[in-house]
Structure formats: structure tokens, C-alpha cells
Amino acid sequence: MHHRQSSKGFSRRTLLAATTAGIAAAGLSTAPAQAAGATGTTGTADKGHKADKALKKIISGMSLEEKVGQLFVMRVYGHSATAPDQADIDANLKEIGVRTAAEMIAKYKLGGIIYFAWAHNVRDPHQIADLSNGIQEIGRRQPSRIPLLVSTDQEHGIVARVGKPATLFPGAMALGAGGSRSDAREAGRLAGAELRALGINQDYAPDADVNINPANPVIGVRSFGADPAAVARMAAAQVEGYQSARIASTAKHFPGHGDTATDSHTGLPVITHTREQWEKLDAPPFKAVIAAGIDSIMTAHLVVPALDPAEDPATLSHPILTGILREKLGYDGVVITDSLGMEGVRTKYGDDRVPVLALKAGVDQLLNPPSLDVSWNGVLKAVQSGELTEERLDASILRILRLKSKLGLFKDPYVSHRGVDHTVGTRAHLAAADRIAERTTTLLVNKDRLLPLNRRTHKNVLVLGANPASPSLSDGPPTTVLGAALTELGFAATVLATGTAPSQAVIAQAVAAAAGKDAVLIGTYNVTAGSAQQALVNAVAATGVPVITLSMRNPYDVAQLPVARAHLAAYSWIDVELRAAVRVLAGRAEPRGRLPVPVQKADDPAQVLYPIGHGLRY
């Protein structure tokens, strides 16, 4: 591996030698994530004890300000740790009061950074690697010389911060439809290897929520499904995959975000499950990932009165985080909040109090507060006043340092361009993503055996539909991707993007374009009763041309589209899933997916139209 030098000629080898001197003999770089003594052999337990002793020595030498900073994981604008673009400097000054990541780390002694595409952290693989190295270099120049956890939300499917040329895999519900633990594990392993090569060492995935509410606005296809046992199996497998690549996997959102119609980004959801229902529906995936050795668990900003009669958000609830997660479930890994900028955690308390209450509840890492200065000083003052003790902070810092040690960050937190080139977006990884995606596409309707389409009888295909694409996650708008995929397979495809809310004029244009076509493929996106998307499908179907619908997010669309001759579920608008769906549509792959959630009837939600496990074959 080629080692980088800083722009000032600073040798990271010199810094690493200084940092690791005196602690390598204690086995610090290979310390286990769990508490010492939790292992099955005396030798490993002894190593854990020695590692904890070395970590505690580091903690004892930290100032109070360093201890407070170690608890925070914060956003920052810019592609570089030291030389971001002027617009990003301006954004940092406005929101954080610093110019760069380097200034922020130095001022607040941060323990972690989170990457976002909108913060311009993830332009391309080499840039991401350089940013990660720059962050680690700044961190290791601080008095405590502690490496940082660099994190992001890379769930895959509809939530992915790092786009192409990195490999993009099917999301959780698609994997749930495939039903293969091996595929979930492999996707996690390969995705984790790519993140690790970029210097990202903590991934906020997988989503362990059980999505039993079709109206859920924030989870949906981010969940593996509605069957708690199946979600538990798939989540545990993906954790094993990520962590085999030396990525800290983060299961979310404890105690379960799958049964809500409120988005915790904008409001405070209330889960009305009884304690018994929670044990049966929400708990199994979290028990499974804990058994699989999960490195970190993210909290949910929602209220569960049956678990906490005081009705505090779970992020701030001692009965939930300490009483249930720590004590009942026996979890001693890192607990991280969901973003503290979300309204779900800000509705009852001020931004200076939320971090303090989260720590008192049992949290270790405080993620992305709206004002770092307000939150950081709130924790500092709570310790100075005696509301929080330094011992309480030390307990969380020990868990965080154990994780950093397990990941090998004390030994070498840096990455190289060579490692990026050998790992990120390789042909082998892309081929694996294609194979996995083909096993997820679900055929829900196939009247008169319309599918697979025959190029002789259905050569001319009109492609209509929504374009909810993120540029970094796709080769173009979904309708364009679908058209290109059909063309590659020998069909003559005409594309007309109609959007998620087509006007009457657009619908009339689509009807006119359908004339003379052999089939129409319509990509749908969260169709509701009486919506313009439903009107579009009905109008085109009335022409008599066979209509095939493809749900590009929630599979529940099918209940609103009874006029479609065939319906496929892709669970995402990302290229890898859309192209797999087209291969299935064209008979180049068999439809193997099975519904991981039930679909209720449109006119009678109490009745199930398609049950869990439904999926047609050719």
C-alpha cells in the first residue's frame, strides 16, 4: 500500500509510530468489540482485558473537552478536510462556525464524521479516500491522537450516499424478496469492502425495522419485510457480511420504526404496540443482530408508551435504552442516536438538553446535532454542574474506543488510491450485484401469460413513468434506464417520462404514444387511490395495448392497478434492480422473488390481496 504525505510534508508513519508506541504490546489494535471476559476462551478474554486497560489509560489522559468531543459524530461541508470550495466554507461558517473539517475536529475534539452527498463529501472514490485520510491525519495530530469513526448511510436500494462508480446493491426489501441469507451476507461483505477502501469505517445499515404498516412514510422498502423472523434472519446475515469486511455495522432504529405513519424527520411518531406485541413484532431482529455481534445500534426518535410510560422519545428513554437494550437484551456495544437534527427528538426538549438526556438514557454517540456548539457545550456544562459524571462519559468512550480498536484504526486508519482501484466498482462486484438483483424481482401479476415478452410479437415497447432518480445512483432517469435495458435485449423502446403526477395533457400524450405499440411498460412510484399515476395506467390500458406495470419503490402499488396485464416489483429505482426487472420481463432471467410484505386490497385494507410469499413463476 502506498502511504500518503500531508501537503506540509508531515509523515503519517512518524505519527503512527508515536501514537502506537507503548500500547501495541497490549494488543490494542486487535481488541474485541465486546467487554473483556465476554469471550469464550481465557486467552482472548485476557487480550480483551489488556486492551481495555490500555484504552482506559488513554481515557485517563484525556481532558474533559476531549471526552465530550469523542461522543459527537458531525457533518461537515466539503470534499477536502483542509481546502474545501468557498461555498462549502461559507456553509460551514454559517452552520458550524468553522471553515473546514480540520478546524471542526481541532475545536471540538470530535470522535466521528458523517458523510453526505449534499454536503459534497462524496464526489468520486479517490476524493473520498483523500478526504478520509485528511480527517484521520487531523485527528491523529490532536493531543489524544485518537482516530475518527468515519460514517455514512449506505443501506443500498433507495438510501445510498456513495454513488457510482461504487457498486450499488439491491436494498433491504429486495433482498427480503430474494430470501437468501447468502445473498444478504455477500452484498454486505462486498459493499463493506468498498466502504472500507474509501476510508469509511462505520455504516448505518442494515435497517432492522419490521415494516408492518404500508403507509409508513420513512421505512418501507428500507426494511427487509413484514415477517419478524425473516427480517431477523436477513438483518443478521447482512451484519455478518458488513463486519466480515471490517466495517462497523449499525442496526436501526431501536426499538423499531416499522409501524408508524409519521416520519420522525418531521414529527414525533407514537407506536401503540403493547409490550407483548413489541416482543413478538419488533424485538426479534434486534435480538438476532445482537447475537450476530453487531457493533452499533441506532436509536429511534419515537414514543412507545408500553415501553416507557413517561413517553419520552426512545433516544432519550432510560427504560428503553438501558432497561431493555442494555439490561434485558444484554447489549454492551455502541449505541448511537439517529440524527439529532430530526424533529422527532426535538419536540419536547431544547437542543442543549437533548444530548444530555440521550447520554443519561444510555447513548454513546451523539449524531449530527443541528448546532454542534450548543449541543457540545450542553454536555460540557452538564458534567461541570454534576448532572453528568465523567465516569458516565468514560463508559461511553470506552465502548467507542473498543470499536475503533476492533476496526484496526489505532494501527492504521489510512487508505490508498491503489486500494480504491482494486476494490471499488470492480467487474466482479458489479456482476455479483446483477446476480443478486435477478433473484429479487417479483412477478405479482401475469394475466394470460403475457410475460415473458416475446420480441417477435411485442417488439415495439413504449416506456412511461416516474423518474425519482438520484443522479449519483443511476446512469440516468429510471424511464431512460428501462428503455436502454429493453433496447439492449433487442426490443424497440420509445421513452416518455410522465412523472409522479402527470397532467391530463401528459396523459393524453401518453395515450397517443401508445398507438401502434405492442406493449407499454409503466414505472410506478407509490401509487395511491385516485392519483394521477393511477389515471395514467387506466387511460393507457383503455387503448387495448397490453400494459405492464413495474413498481419502483413500494410493492403496494399493484393493489391500485387492477387493469395492468402484468405487474413486477423491483423495490427501487436504482439501475441494478431496474435492469434485473427488464431481464425478467424479457425472459432472460426467471422471476424468483417472493413478496416479503402482504399487499392489502385497495377497497378493503382488512383483506389481503397478495400474502407474504406470493410470487409467480414462468
Topology of this protein?
Blueprint: H1 12-20, H2 42-60, H3 64-70, E1 72-74, H4 86-95, H5 101-108, E2 112-114, H6 125-141, E3 149-152, E4 154-156, E5 159-160, H7 172-178, H8 181-197, E6 202-203, H9 228-244, E7 248-254, H10 275-291, E8 296-299, H11 318-328, E9 334-336, H12 354-361, E10 366-367, H13 372-385, H14 390-406, H15 417-423, H16 427-438, E11 442-446, E12 460-465, H17 478-488, E13 492-497, H18 504-514, E14 519-524, H19 532-541, E15 547-551, E16 566-569, H20 575-585, E17 599-600, E18 608-610
Parallel strand pairs: 1-2, 1-10, 2-3, 3-6, 6-7, 7-8, 8-9, 12-13, 12-14, 14-15, 15-16
Antiparallel strand pairs: 4-5, 11-16, 17-18
Helix pairs in contact: 2-14, 3-14, 5-6, 8-9, 8-16, 9-10, 16-20, 17-20, 18-19
Keywords:
single chain, 618 residues, alpha/beta, TIM Barrel, Rossmann fold, eight-stranded parallel beta sheet, 20 helices, 11% strand, Glyco_hydro_3_C_sf, beta-N-acetylhexosaminidase, hydrolase activity, glycosidase, Glyco_hydro_3_AS
Overview of the molecule:
This protein is an alpha/beta fold and 618 residues long. It has two domains: 12-413, Alpha-Beta Barrel (TIM Barrel); 441-610, Glycoside hydrolase family 3 C-terminal domain (Rossmann fold). Helix content is 39%, strand content 11%. The protein has 20 helices and 18 strands. It has an eight-stranded parallel beta sheet with strand order 9-8-7-6-3-2-1-10. The longest helix is centred in the N-terminal third of the chain and has 19 residues, at 42-60. It is globular, with a radius of gyration of 25 Å. This is beta-N-acetylhexosaminidase. It is an enzyme of class 3 (hydrolase). Residues 1-35 form the signal peptide. Its EC number is 3.2.1.52. GO terms for molecular function: hydrolase activity.
